[in-house]
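Hi U.,

Before I forget, here's the chain from the pilot set. I'm dumping it here mostly so it's searchable later in email.
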Amino acid sequence: MQEVFIRIHTHLSRMRDLNKLESWIYQITRNAIIDHYRCRRSTVELSELISVEDDFYQDDPAATLAPSLVTMVEELPVPYREALILTEYQGLNQRQLAEKLGISFSGAKSRVQRARHLLRDMLLTCCHFELDRRGAIIDYYERCCCCNPAR
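Structure:
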């Protein structure tokens, strides 16, 4: 609450329409709550070689495919691989990607979408998926041995 009162006091001079005071205070409160939880979100550095026990994979088909996905990402052509890694794994948004690579925003968007499409095609060539109505993987079966790193 103290943070909300500080923000109200600090920005009160910007308030134009006093008839909207209640909704303005509500928005400040909402933003303060979002900021609070955003700052508390913990991040964990993952090593490249994560040792996970086999029990973890038994109930989650997506987790079973995770090691294969890394291999498939590495097989993508360099521009697409770079775009996918920077956005999906390193957390850049597509505008930041465009700036980092020195390309247009629409070019960055196209590159990321193309990388996702190529990766999807690789997965569909390799495996057949059963999805629930939300699109989550329920089960899959392999058409080749590329989805099973143990082989």
